Amino acid sequence: MPSSFGLTTQIYNNHIKSGILLAGFPLLLLAMMGGFFIIMNALMQSSVPGAAVNWAAAFNAGWAGVLQYGGWAFAAAGIWFVIAYFFHDSIMRMATGAQPVTRQQYPKIYNMLENLCISRGLAMPAFEIIDSPALNAFATGIDQKSFKIVLTRGLVEHLPDDELESVIGHELTHIMNRDVRLLVISIIFVGIISFLAQMAYQSLIFGNTPNFYARRDDREGGGAAALAALGVLAVGYALAILIRFALSRKREYLADAGSVELTKNPEAMMKALIRIAGHDELPHFPHEMQQMCIENSQGSIIGMFATHPPIEARIKMISEMTNTPVPTLPPPAAPVPTGPWS
């Protein structure tokens, strides 16, 4: 099981990763802008019949474009980041439909969380509930005042108490490790890069590029340059996505292990994962936020682009880590929607 030293190390590592994201994002943004302006200049050069592309001039134009428009791009990105960072709580609530609940409404889950927090000397996060029959949960927040654990109604109603406590422990570990703040930052950055890439794409496809739709022999170079420009944008966006997914996958293993340490009940954590598997889908949940959930079968692509490790691999890790046999409990039938709740 992870020791307190291990958890402290993870918190420290996440602080470092947050700093790297903050420092690396401007560099990635500059690289994307420079590549875009270089290719755009080459595109305009190649639009002249018979003209060869002067790449030295294109690189100079790219650097000039970064100097001219970089400040505006950073200002726009900075405004976006500030708004998303400080108003993420309201944004998350509007996007997911989560609603705050009090201890009087749900004493059981508050009592479970309180016991886990007391065992580690932690302040209690708040709870929110999503009115969905799906079995899922996530944690969010950037500081002690905004940390919260969000559970679906289906999870609260269908999981036995020990398994529900394990899920709460899993999400509490994300908060303890500061995973949630790291993911909020990564989601904001990917959103900014996605927006800028789409704007650049629209400029390339629908902009007034000289002779872009000229005769084929006149536009071969321009077409190649346009494809190269789109490639630059795609690579930048893909790098941002890969970083986000890599952060998401590793943290799930650590949160599973942290929950086992908190609850001292590895079998309950494994049973909870078995029950959740296949019943986690939240169809109307924003794609960018699905990576925050305890499971995301909709994003379970094998390899680098998977948002979560396979449930089977997570269960195997818990079993081997604790020397506990894997439970044979079959997953229950899919929950039946019951409509609005009170």
Describe this structure in words.
The chain is mainly alpha-helical and 342 residues long. It folds into two domains: 111 residues, no CATH class; 165 residues, 2-Layer Sandwich (Zincin-like), CATH 3.30.2010.10. Helix content is 65%, strand content 5%. Strands 1-2-4-3 form a four-stranded mixed sheet. It is elongated, with a radius of gyration of 24 Å. The two termini are 39 Å apart.
Largest sheet: 4 strands, mixed
How many helices in DSSP terms?
A: 11
CATH H-level homologous superfamily name of the largest domain: Metalloproteases ("zincins"), catalytic domain
Whole-number average pLDDT? 78
Adjacency order of strands in the biggest sheet: 1-2-4-3
- Beta-strand fraction estimate: under 5%
Q: How would you describe the shape?
A: elongated
How much helical structure, as a percent, in the residues?
55-70%
Rg value: 24 Å
CATH class of the largest domain: Alpha Beta
Q: N- to C-terminal separation?
A: 39 Å
Low-confidence stretches: 1-5, 208-222
Order of helices and strands: HHHEHEEEHHHHHHH
Topology:
Blueprint: H1 4-46, H2 55-86, H3 88-96, E1 99-101, H4 107-120, E2 126-130, E3 137-140, E4 148-152, H5 153-158, H6 161-176, H7 179-206, H8 216-263, H9 266-276, H10 287-290, H11 311-322
Parallel strand pairs: 2-4
Antiparallel strand pairs: 1-2, 3-4
Helix pairs in contact: 1-2, 1-7, 1-8, 2-7, 4-6, 6-8, 6-9, 7-8, 8-11, 9-11
